[in-house]
Design a protein that fits this description.
alpha/beta, Hypothetical Protein Ychn, Chain: A, globular
Length: about 120
């Protein structure tokens, strides 16, 4: 299996505006990691809010583990989180409050990770 065939991307554009999407995105990301895929979550638009400490702790959808727990599980098991730089700046968020494992980056980093063909889903 080629390196890119073993990669998986979850793109998330929601947070408090759609907690169900935010939660399911990290359920799927954890499943991809559990399937031995190098997995990246790309947070953009409203999803960038989840990269700020304490924000995911405000979301707990019925029937699912709390979102903060899902994100911690994801990063603890080697998952990567890229945060859209322009989206983050537009919302005037504080980059000193980033959660562990989150990195602010431009779209070029996402393209680099996906180059050569990668499975992906969007929420």
């Amino acid at each position: 299996m080629s390196a890119t065939a073993n990669r998986f991307v979850v793109t998330l554009t929601s947070s408090h505006d759609n907690p169900d999407k935010a939660t399911v995105a990290f359920v799927v990301a954890n499943a991809a990691l559990g399937s031995d895929r190098e997995t990246l979550v790309f947070l953009s638009v409203e999803g960038v809010r989840l990269s700020v400490q304490g924000e995911a702790g405000k979301i707990h959808e019925a029937g699912f583990a709390p979102l903060a727990e899902l994100i911690h599980q994801f990063t603890s098991n080697g998952g990567k989180i890229l945060v859209c730089s322009p989206c983050f700046k537009k919302r005037a968020l504080d980059d000193s409050q980033l959660i562990p494992g989150a990195v602010i980056a431009g779209g070029a980093k996402l393209v680099e990770f996906m180059a050569g063909g990668v499975s992906s889903v969007s929420f």
